[in-house]
Write the structure tokens for this entry.
Amino acid sequence: DAKTTQPPSMDCAEGRAANLPCNHSTISGNEYVYWYRQIHSQGPQYIIHGLKNNETNEMASLIITEDRKSSTLILPHATLRDTAVYYCIVRVASGAQKLVFGQGTRLTINP
Amino acid sequence: NAGVTQTPKFRILKIGQSMTLQCTQDMNHNYMYWYRQDPGMGLKLIYYSVGAGITDKGEVPNGYNVSRSTTEDFPLRLELAAPSQTSVYFCASWGDRSYGYTFGSGTRLTVV
């Protein structure tokens, strides 16, 4: 599975959009981009995933560049409860789906 | 629909003791996983299973054993506990119709 690069930490003001970048320059054509988050010591929570088109759900939006070498997770109106570690993972969507977690980005939402 | 249930939530073991961490899911998922997370670090895969009767090693399998006799259950066995196994353990599952993994709430294990 391709490796990803994320900033170790970010801050965002409550109510603003939080934009979390991820670089995955070695992504293969059949690999998806997945985002998970981990709030405090809870189990990670799935947020969103995409292949090449932009995706949106009730939690977030995912913007993938045309060359697929990077992506951005957008939390449109961040709240204090969005403070968490966010993991960007790229992998194929078949077989035994082993997620490989990096260090992620620690996002802090400030009041 | 309870999702993924892990027991116990907390446990303190003495060096050399053994224990089983329980994990059960009620979503009929074929794939199940065990991860450990050390303080301030990301999750590392210990073992995984693609279905009942089939298991395979992950990144850090030493000191652990697993079994998968049913689709629902995927227990993790620690033999001869060591301080290096002090960690938070997460179980997860995934099914063909799932968007992503479903994780349990974790077991916090301390070996003293």
About this structure: Chain A touches chain B through 21 residues (CB under 8 Å). The longest strand of chain A covers residues 84-92. The mean pLDDT of chain A is 92.
